[in-house]
Q: What sequence folds into this?
């Protein structure tokens, strides 16, 4: 398996996948709406194919000659039909493997949140395709702590804020680790379908995360449960504020929604990577988390 098409390569989750695949020697093509946003990828040898997931012809054209596809659908803005377009094109072109980052857990029941519930339909489409696939289910991304409003409060007030109660204990994962799992999935010689949860190496509460940040930054950091409305103002776009508020209110009402129970060692045994800890992550991003 040598030629890989990356869907979502200009975003913060997809870009490191394209970068790591290119570094590993794969011939990478990125389907991008705006090639200007992908100039850095072209510089490392990634071929750019202009197109949109709403354009089935463009997706099919980008798929020609590909051995594998990395699939990522936007959490708040994506639609299951976009994934179905990619899967149909992959079937038509004889793609051998699809690696799908589901952006979270694939739940066996409806939650009322379309961003979560669409995952089950995408999984069903993959299962019906006959293509070997790996479905990666990441927990919550460490990069959320780099949202400007959150990082600025760490830098200027020594406070780490996030919209979750202290009762949540989560195994946070970095974009880099999720990308490493994707690369490992393409390298895996086992053709069997794999649906797997992926996570970071530690299961931590908000206060424990703040303590790890403090170790990395050399100062005391405290945790603040951020109201969902405040978080939505920090990240909302295209009128999706109510969906964000509703999701995080649910976490405050039921902390188990965000508490994770991933068998990290089993995931590493199946798809070996070198994971990044929360303290490592804060060390890497020390400059963003420190006042100038």
A:
């Amino acid at each position: 398996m040598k030629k890989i098409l990356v869907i979502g390569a200009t975003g913060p989750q997809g870009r490191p996948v394209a970068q790591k695949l290119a570094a590993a020697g794969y011939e990478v093509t990125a389907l991008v709406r705006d090639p200007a946003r992908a100039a850095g990828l072209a510089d490392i040898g990634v071929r750019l194919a202009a197109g949109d997931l709403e354009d089935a012809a463009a997706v099919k054209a980008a798929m020609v000659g590909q051995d594998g596809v990395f699939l990522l659908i936007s959490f708040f803005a994506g639609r299951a039909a976009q994934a179905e377009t990619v899967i149909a094109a992959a079937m038509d072109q004889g793609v051998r493997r699809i690696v799908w980052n589901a952006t979270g857990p694939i739940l066996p029941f409806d939650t009322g949140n379309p961003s979560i519930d669409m995952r089950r339909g995408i999984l069903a489409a993959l299962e019906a395709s006959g293509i070997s696939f790996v479905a990666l289910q990441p927990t919550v991304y460490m990069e959320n702590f780099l949202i400007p409003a959150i990082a600025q409060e760490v830098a200027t007030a020594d406070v780490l804020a996030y919209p979750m109660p202290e009762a949540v204990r989560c195994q946070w994962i970095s974009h880099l680790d999720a990308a490493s799992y994707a690369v490992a999935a393409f390298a895996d010689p086992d053709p069997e379908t794999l649906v797997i949860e992926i996570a970071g190496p530690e299961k931590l509460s908000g206060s424990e995360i703040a303590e790890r940040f403090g170790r990395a930054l050399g100062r005391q950091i405290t945790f603040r449960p951020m109201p969902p409305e405040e978080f939505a103002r920090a990240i909302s776009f295209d009128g999706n504020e109510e969906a964000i508020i509703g999701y995080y209110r649910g976490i405050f009402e039921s902390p188990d929604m965000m508490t994770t129970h991933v068998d990290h060692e089993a995931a590493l045994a199946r798809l070996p990577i070198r994971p990044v800890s929360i303290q490592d992550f804060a060390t890497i991003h020390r400059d963003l988390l420190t006042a100038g």
